Amino acid sequence: MKTAIATVSISGTLSEKLDAISAAGFDGIEIFEQDFITDEGSARDVGQRIRDKGLEISLFQPFRDFEGLPGELRVKAFDRAERKFDLMQELGADLILICSSVHPKAMGGIDRAADDLRELGERAAKRGLRIGYEALAWGRYVNDHRDAWEIVRRADHPNVGVILDSFHTLGRGLDPETIRRIPGDRIFFVQLADAPLIPMDLLYWSRHFRNMPGEGDLPVTDFMRAVLAAGYKGPVSLEIFNDQFRGGSPKTVALDGYRSLVTLMDDVRRAEPELEIDLTAIPPRQPVQGTAFIEFATQGQEGQKLRAQLRALGFSETGRHVGKAIELWQQGDIRIVVNEQRGDFAASAYNAHGTSVCDIGLHVPSSADTLARASALGSKQFSQPPSVGQLDIPAIRGLGGSVLHFLDDSHAGVWEAEFGTSRAGPPGVGLLAVDHLAQTMTYDEMLSWSLFYSSLFNMEKAPMVDVIDPDGLVRSQALTTPGGEMRITLNGAETHRTFAGAFLAESFGAPVQHIALTTDDIFATAEALAERGFEALPIPSNYYDDLASRLDIAPDDLARMKRWNILHDRDDHGSFHQIYGRASASGFFFEIVERKGYQGYGAPNAPFRIAAQKRLARPKGMPSH
Ligand SMILES: O=C(O)c1ccc(O)c(O)c1
Ligand SMILES: [Mg+2]
Predict the structure, then answer these.
(1) Fold of 434-617
(2) Which residues bind a divalent metal cation (predicted)?
């Protein structure tokens, strides 16, 4: 299976686009005419540059408003096409996309369009070129792939085929199953795009909101299954018009595209195993059984502050690494690793971000399979020279320089071997496990991260929620494994004036801004925390008055919540309590939660949490900005 991507999907100059596309592993490109015109090179030159990057030109596009024109306009349309044929021959492209006409003078009629395409096909054939006809969802007369196919069928010319685009089919709600009836060899090209389901004008939606398969809400897998069941053997190409991608990093968007395509084809194969897919088999989306460890990079004074924070949270230092300046801190089944080793990855993470989470270890059934899937999706393996006594645990670079380790049963001995203890930690204040990690990023990075997690792991995306900060909006997207073994929230800040945005401004990448740990008795834990000097984030009493007016809460419980600064929420599945710790100078904090069936993250409480954090962060009497 050949993969391709339209140059319009990527930001930058043509050369930057080509570099990114080639590095991400694609076989070819759809060259958008505009990307050629804006370049200074001649057509021959540009064609050569593309081939020098190891890419082929799978498609030249778009050619607009061709079919159904009367008289002189029709003659001009054919002349225009001949010019583009000249250009294609110079470039070394043999297939052109003709999108269905939106011309105000165009006339309808399937036979009229078929006659035009047959004649153009005849002219293309003389030059060894082919034409593909695509129904734009907003085409004047032709806006359904079934009509485009009927026109191509009637044109009845070997150099005329149909081009299918998942957006135009699925965006209009057309049944992709109808594609199975088209002979595969008459489908000349297939373009893929997903999109979020937002009701709006089709053309506007298509030109600004498309995204990578798996990033949106359209059934692109069903579409691709039908295409392959029809017998299509040509390239599978991404054509993504998206405002964010146009302004994003060419490399990241290209890599996301590749990750999305491989994931899609793997999903197709699993959904319909009898289909022939020419792509190496990869392990399925991996289950996650829990968080094995969270590692902080720190140094000096900041390290002391972190230790004090861990102590107040009920953690104890239970072991030291046999070969490095690394400590193990435990409470129940939670392991936190404090890494002060110089010259290692942790030290470079500290230099770049200050005290921060630099590594996350996950329990998986098979670390080899997890690594294999991650590599097939384009992730780079991570390793550093092991010290004496250090085990080699498979790891990858996540996005933005982060590191993820994968531990399976074969690594059960790692704690004993490296830290001299394999026991669970002391009970501390009753914290039991990691509930979720919250990563902060720019809004534009959210799709990349959610694709990263949802393509590698068996995780479901929850609907995006808006979180109100006194100084701006933060979008929040949660991903969860089916049993809640791993929960990640991605928080996208649009301005550095928000609490999340200010944290981000001090860092790079998509740092972990808070870690939530579970208890099964929030009141007992709150008391134990207070005894250890843990300082909860103070919540104003207005909050509790409002809570009492909204929810039916026993007066005793309300009083206890108020006393310990505990926030509360409920959903259809159950109830939720949360306590926030005070944030560090950079804005990092811990949260303690008790979840009784509840599926969310206390989003209704987030504005009060943020306002309280900002109040504390601000010197008294100073305005917020
Ligand atoms: O938005 C457009 O005009 C446009 C052009 C070419 C395509 O292949 C397409 O899907 C849309
Ligand atoms: Mg298209």
Answers:
(1) 2,3-Dihydroxybiphenyl 1,2-Dioxygenase; domain 1 (3.10.180)
(2) 134, 165, 191, 239
